[in-house]
Automatic annotation (TrEMBL):
GO terms for molecular function: pyridoxal phosphate binding. This is Pyridoxal phosphate homeostasis protein. The modification N6-(pyridoxal phosphate)lysine is found at K37. Residues 42-230 form the Alanine racemase N-terminal domain. Gene3D superfamilies: Alanine racemase. It comes from Chryseobacterium turcicum. The keyword Glycosyltransferase does not apply. Belongs to the pyridoxal phosphate-binding protein YggS/PROSC family. It comes from the Bacteria. Pyridoxal 5'-phosphate (PLP)-binding protein, which is involved in PLP homeostasis.
Length: 243
């Protein structure tokens, strides 16, 4: 398994470099994030030892379980799962530097109040539901800009960009449309020049569609399966913190 993980990471890095070449982008502009849901800490450590530094969980419980054993290797934690308001206190214990799945006002408001109590700030990305599939979370594209404007008032939240999960489809052009929608919203927000809002990050692209995402401007690609292998549960399971 160790060798498998190392080999898979090398393949993904090649894919990223090739995709950047195709679209005349500098590979330094694209960060590889390891989506580590269900992956045991020992395998995550192997990945970190190859030089990867950015990992993300979908559930606070997994964050907690792996936290101690990952301490020995420096890395950055993001959060990419659906977050319940009752888990806010918990998630702030585990050095999560960025919540990529921010998608609603009440969550932001409660997070802000908790951060103020703890005298902390946190980075967030706004998750947009660009595929309009019911099973996925994220703010609807038509409400995304308004949400950013509202959240900009919470000074403990540092908005850094947008995140989306593209349509699961073998039709590349439909998937591409999701990423274009995200890019388009980013451009509109940049034009508005909102105080306390930065828009440099576009987190989009996963194992199956990272090339398309990079072509459309991704700065973070989130890869799980192509590095760690198949998971036992369907993805919908991890996207819902209630389950
Ligand atoms: C699991 C997950 C990924 C990675 O998906 P793979 O297809 O396994 O690469 C990316 N983003 C989110 C939000 C995820 O939950």
């Amino acid at each position: 398994m160790d060798e498998e993980i190392k080999k898979n990471i090398a393949i993904i890095q090649e894919r990223i470099i090739n995709a950047c070449k195709q679209s005349n982008r500098n590979p330094d502009e694209v960060k590889l994030l390891l989506a580590t849901k269900t992956v045991p800490a020992e395998y995550i450590k192997i990945a970190l030892q190859t030089g990867c530094t950015l990992i993300a969980e979908n559930k606070t419980q997994e964050l907690r379980e792996k936290y101690q054993s990952l301490q020995e290797i420096p890395h950055t934690n993001h959060f990419i799962g659906h977050l319940q308001t009752n888990k806010i206190k918990d998630i702030l214990k585990y050095d999560v530097s960025c919540i990529q799945s921010m998608d609603r006002f009440d969550l932001a408001e409660k997070l802000h109040h908790r951060l103020q109590l703890e005298n902390k700030t946190i980075e967030i990305l706004i998750q947009v539901n660009t595929s309009n599939e019911e099973s996925k979370f994220g703010v609807n594209p038509e409400n995304a800009i308004e949400l950013v404007q509202q959240l900009a008032h919470f000074e403990s939240l540092k908005i850094k960009g947008l995140m989306t999960i593209g349509l699961f489809s073998t039709e590349t052009e439909k998937v591409r449309q999701c990423f274009r929608t995200l890019k388009d919203i980013q451009q509109q927000i940049i034009t508005l020049n909102i105080f306390n809002v930065e828009m440099q990050e576009l987190s989009m692209g996963m194992s199956g569609d990272l090339e398309t995402a990079i072509a459309e401007g991704a700065t973070i690609v989130r890869v799980g399966t192509a590095i760690f292998g198949k998971r036992i549960h369907p993805d919908s399971y991890y996207w819902n913190e209630n389950k």
